[in-house]
Amino acid sequence: MPNFYPSWFLIPAGVLFLVFFAIPTFASFYFSLTRWTLFDVEFIGFDNFVQFFAEEQLVTSFVNTFIYGAVTSVAKVVFGMALGLLLSSQLVGRGYLRSVIFFPVLVSTIGIGLTFKVLLDPFDGVVNATLSVLGIEGPGWLIDPSIALLTVAAIDVWKGIGIATLIYIAGIVAIPQEYVEAARVDGAGSWAIFRSLTFPLLWPATGTVIILSLIGGLRSFDLIWATTRGGPGFTSDVIGSVIYKQYQAGFYGLSTAGNVVLFVVVSAIMIPLYIFINRRSVES
Amino acid sequence: MKAIAARRWIVGLLAIVVSAIVFLVPFAFIILTAAKSAPEASQLQFSWPTEWMLWENIATVLSTRNGLVIRAFVNSAVLTVVSVAVTVVLAAMVGYVVQRRHSRWNQVVNVFILAGLIVPPAVVPTIWVLQGLGLFKTLPGLILIEATFGLAFCILLFRAFVATIPRELDEAAMLDGAGPIRLFFQVILPLLRPVVVTVIVIQSVAVFNDFAGPLYFLPGDDNATVQLTLYNFQSQSVNQYNLLFADILLITIPPLVLYIFFNRQIVAGMTSGAVKG
């Protein structure tokens, strides 16, 4: 009698995963401790990490990564939930609205980044031209060091809000209507229903949105590279763009140290969050 | 009742107007700019082209630099089709065995899935591995990379779907004398069709739109993918916004076509996990 669920079915995927993912990840811990060029490797201990937390540019990228991840995931939760509630109510043009909000998710990040770079041009761009007609002087969205990172985060939210909205719609549809009706019979107003019924029952959806946005936000590179390239100066650099810049400059060891820092940041945030969110979901 | 109906209309119409400004204007801007002449496009205005030159611009984009963009489309198509095919078959095999049989390997697979979902790939060490295998700067190398990066998410989808296929089917096939390979490829895989379609569509969009992968692992103009042509276009020809946006338009068409035909599957895949948490 042959085994009908053979373990060797796991082997092809396992080999790919091992060779192209696990080995590079483990190797990165070693290479991050080296001065590494194309031709030779020299062990230098923790110098790369010391440099990472000493140079202002690299520290900025470290802090920006957290800001970017936090801003995009909070915004996606808030707008995603609002749009989800709006689009699961009885509304004219609901199907059209869902399609339009979702479509940017599928469009190339680079294409969207370049489009917004032109739309947000401080002098001739459509956005600031429109604002000036209204008598408002628009800021230098992507060239003002104090707001460039937030502008990129806003574009990120624009592109990704469709997924958050869909996840919330799926969550809202799954809430039994009897609960809402029972609460209404008991005299609860709309706000009370939202606060003590809808919001807690949407916790699994909120957890999914937070996890997805953080995974994307902390690792983000494409959109930043297409819009600001970390500029002006290095004010909108994140760890992802530093990894690329150091790689381009030939500092492979430092680039890999950036990878390890990102690995630690992502794991330190995601693993506790994952456990916390799963526990909350089970309770509610 | 009348008040509620009126509110439905007012809120709905308001939402339609706002969504048109926020979501449709950028896409309209892409099309309009792609249809302008170079000097007119460089004014960056949201206006109707004085002369409609969309086809000329697209033809120019396709023919510049000995058809670089056409070659890039071929490269992207090969990359997407082959890597997605590999991901689908391998992920389905893992999802199936892991769901059907409880062994000590399942824990290992779970750890791999979680790691694959959250851990950012280590870029330069991956290049080092590719170089060791002689696959750096080759299309097959990038195909294997993209296939690997897609595995974790796809295994999750397959595992969840295999759970809905009754085991009695396996047993019936076994009694009829099918071996494990025939059982999987001729009985189970056809039944997985709905989730296979979802996985194919979502993975295709992800691979086709991927920028960091080709940037790191397949640099150079000879075998550029479409995302790289976009990026290079922008660095080289600052004043030819009409051509840049014609290129953006071309690259937006494949996902748009997929969206029109596979709307339901895309939504199903993207929201999986929302309810169960």
Describe the protein in words.
The complex is a heterodimer of chains A (284) and B (277). Chain A has helices at residues 11-31, 47-52, 56-87, 94-102, 109-119, 126-133, 148-173, 177-185, 190-201, 203-218, 222-227, 239-248, 252-283, and strands at 34-36, 41-43. Chain A is an all-alpha fold. In chain A, strands 1-2 form a two-stranded antiparallel ribbon. In chain A, helix 3 (56-87) packs antiparallel against helix 10 (203-218). Chain A is globular and about 75 Å long. Chain B has 277 residues and is mostly helical. Chain B contains twelve helices and no strands. Chain B is globular. Chains A and B meet through helix 1, helix 4, helix 5, helix 7 and helix 10 of A and helix 1, helix 3, helix 4, helix 5 and helix 6 of B.
Residue fraction in strands of chain B: under 5%
Q: What is the tally of beta strands of chain A? A: 2
Please estimate the helix content of chain B.
over 70%
Distance between the termini of chain B: 37 Å
- Rg of chain A, Å, rounded: 23 Å
Structural class of the helix and strand makeup of chain B? mainly alpha
Helix content, binned percent of chain A: 55-70%
Shape of chain B: globular
Major sheet of chain A, described briefly?
Answer: 2 strands, antiparallel
Strand numbers in spatial order across the main sheet of chain A:
1-2
Largest interface: A-B, 97 and 97 residues
In DSSP terms (H or I, runs of 4 or more residues), the helix count of chain A works out at 13
End-to-end CA span of chain A:
46 Å
Low-confidence stretches of chain B: 273-277
* Class from secondary-structure proportions of chain A: mainly alpha
Strand content of chain A: under 5%
Give the assembly state of these chains.
heterodimer
